[in-house]
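Much of what follows relies on a compact textual record of a protein's fold. With that in mind, consider the following protein and its fold in token form.
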Amino acid sequence: MGEKDITIPASGARTAPPRGAESKAFQKTGVDLLIRFHIVDKIAKIYDTKNDAFQEQGKLLFESLTAKLKEKDEASFRVRHGALLLNGVRLKFSVGTYGIFKSVLEELRTRDVEALTFLPGLGLDELCRFMSLFAKRDKKDEAVYAQLVADLDAAGVEHVELEKISAEEIAQGLHKNTARMFFLSIVHLKESFARDQRKEPIKINTTRRLMQSIYNHIVEDEGFVHGLTNIKNHDEYTLNHSVNVCLLATSLGRRLGLSRSEIVDLGMAAFFHDLGKTDTPLNILNKPGRLTDAERVVMEQHPFHGAEKLVLLKEFRHLPLRAIHVALEHHIKEDLSGYPRYYKKDDINLFSKIVKVVDVFDAITTKRVYRTTDFTRAEAMSLMLEQSGTEFNPVILKAFVNMMGVFPIGSLVALTSGEVGIVHDINPDPKLLLRPSVKLITDAEGNKVDGEVVDLAERVPETGRFRRTIAAPLDPAKYGVEVADYFLAQAL
């Protein structure tokens, strides 16, 4: 290397981080260090340690580390809840540095590294060996962290410490990002509705990118996505409902074997399925009682208004054609009753049939001022199954039930053990749909607890019998349980 004799002193004068380490000076040096690390990481993926560019950038990184270690006896990057911390202080990114932050976070996560700490005594040669090994493009598998540690030990890297990311941190990071996606979806839809009302263009390209993000979250965190659909904002019903329908339709499309591009199109169609309601008077939308015949006529115009709005969009060429079908057809039943009535067409678009199922499910599990009865998620499933073949396509409904489970995520259930819990995730085995995992919220005596998540497929070893079984679904409203709060708490 030519610089092997350069080392960071193991001892010497050190000062604590400046008071209020959020200072501009701390942030600047911290971000500069992160940028240096990012540059060397990228170069190390292409060149070996003898390359001039590697050596030049490696020395700059080393100098940045030396300066930071004079302030404290370590320079430690840590991933915490989707953020990057340096020596315990969160680093702030700007528009210009966001890509670098995201890249470094991804590099750490793909190696299951939660913390990366540089220690006094680190030499330039040792730093370069570390960066070369860290940058390896090995395919991620369960042993990625252990392999990296073994490689560093074999290379004699002693002044860099790694800390493995915990399963809890992985899940919490996923949940937090998923929750952020959920609320960003509501904000974007609200903005889209407002732009439509002002006769301004809707940002369809932004919508498509959002749908691609939703698809990724469903692939990585499907159970939690389903859990978030328990959130019901009664003041923003149409927005909240449309986002819930979008999430569930996207997930169902994946279960039905649609391609990624088809699923993104389906998500966009579901996202805008109720766009026509922006022209429906609020006194009709929120009327606390039965609609008159005249009001019913007005209400049943919203599919036409929605389809018309989508056709007239300036960005129409970026919108999937099937979004028009969904806006127009999502209230048509499998037996072709419902509205609007088709007198010649004898088939409904596949996307419309998918949205029809999830639209009804979310609607009947949400309290509305005009409806005397709302259903628990388990009751909704039972009711919908009774209408298979008449209101819903049987194949699509069966796939939906298999996806959601007999006791969908978010259902409040009483167990034979006397405990009460919230369904946390369904069992992936179709034979065990009645045995989801459950988050316990009371003990057997009825005392409120922050209990563990238990698997209802677990058996007692001595007898072979199931340890717990669902005795009955419960209505959260009757027990004062806010199911949505449980899922939001997981993301905080």
